Amino acid sequence: MRIAILAPEKIEFSSAAASITLGSSAGDDIVLAGEGVAAAHARLSLDARGYVLEVGAAVAPIHVNARPVRERALLHAGDQISIGAAQVLLLGEHVCEACPDDAEPDTEVPPGALSLRGIGGSRSGAALSVAPTLELGADGLPAGLGANAGSLRVFCVQGRPAMLCRDLPMAAWPRINGHVAACAWLHDGDQISIGAQRYLVDAPPDAARHDAVDAFIPAEAARPEDTAGPRREVWWLLLTAAVIALVLALLLAIRH
């Protein structure tokens, strides 16, 4: 698992262990400085359910994305953990793949193929549909940028979800699963955080599927049954039989 300490100092850790402890003791796997941090303050584990955070006994509550956790919680990559004065960010195992900044958005997105679900900030609980694009302007960006600071656009390119910053300063770029990105391909379950706003990407794998044949046949095209299939074969047989009969009739007429 990968973890970045954001405060009081910036350090990044990577561990192959399935479980690690975070606290102020030298015996903890990750030693955190700062007021309010106790020894073995928290344990972070990775199992079949995902990342599990457990709060140590007789310690101050931990906050995840500004919400208190007193015993345990299931986390996602991109969640921010506050342990006393220490700020810890849970990073995705892989840095997101950048998409071309000149990619042309699809003009149509099937219903339910892509949406953002607010899980933090003023839009918590809201479902924002991408149809065919979703533009997050000043009301969805960090405070203090101004109305003309740019925007964050979410869209699809040939059915593949993507995100692109438009004229946003680098300091305002979002994090995808904890990693800063100006443009990126998105996947179902990715967490986008920008300022105090947090979103989960809902992109069901089967929702954007198109039938490769039906999607590209013009409306005025002939139906397959009009140009092929058993009925066409019957007409060819009848025509062939008629030609053979005509040839035989001519041969008989010539002989007589």
From TrEMBL:
Protein origin, superkingdom: Bacteria
Keyword flag Transmembrane helix: yes
YscD cytoplasmic domain location: 17-90
Protein name: YscD cytoplasmic domain-containing protein
Organism: Metallibacterium scheffleri
Keywords recorded for this protein, A-Z: Membrane, Transmembrane, Transmembrane helix
Keyword Transmembrane found: yes
Transmembrane regions: 234-254
